[in-house]
Amino acid sequence: MKHILCLLLCLALVFGLFACGQTTPDPTIVASTITGAETTAEKKATLNDGIRAFSYEQDVARYSVDDWGIHREGFHNATESIISSKEDAIRLAKNEVSIAYDEASVDYDDTCDMWRIGLFNFDSGYPQTTVYLTGKGITTLIFSH
């Protein structure tokens, strides 16, 4: 009886772990508004345009107030601007930096209605500056790596 119970638990564990890797979140599901003016289809198209999901709350939890490279004030994007594409988000992020970057990555948190734009040069391969924008285009945080 113990052997059968052990075998069943092992099988449940193996199939449970296998199943964990099979599901991925659907990036087309949008719970909140991006700019407030688009239709659901337009929001889905925007998020499918090479934009990955991320958690703003998890990112902010990583940064300490005393961390070097954290900027929380003095931003250029202080008034609302419509973000209807990843190009809009990149353009607004580039407003905040004085260095000319040639590459960008764009992520969106639909729970917090926040954009994360990583700016970098092709030869570095990783973001050298990360700009966080609200869904209305207002900069809230910049992290310079």
Quick rundown:
The chain has 145 residues and is of the alpha+beta class.
Task: Tell me about this structure.
The protein starts with a helix and ends with a strand. It is of the alpha+beta class and 145 residues long. It has helices spanning 2-20, 40-47, 56-62, 86-95; strands spanning 52-53, 70-71, 103-109, 114-120, 129-134, 139-144. β3 and β4 (114-120) form a beta hairpin. It has one domain. Mean pLDDT is 74; it is low at 5-46.
Please report the distance between the alpha carbons of the first and last residues. 58 Å
Main sheet: strand order = 1-3-4-5-6-2
Mean pLDDT: 74
Q: How would the global form be characterised?
A: globular
Low-confidence stretches: 5-46
* Percent in strands: 15-25%
What characteristics describe this protein?
21% strand; alpha+beta; 145 residues; six-stranded mixed beta sheet; globular
How do the strands and helices of this protein lay out in sequence?
Layout (H helix, E strand, L loop, with lengths): L1 H19 L19 H8 L4 E2 L2 H7 L7 E2 L14 H10 L7 E7 L4 E7 L8 E6 L4 E6 L1
Parallel strand pairs: 1-3
Antiparallel strand pairs: 2-6, 3-4, 4-5, 5-6
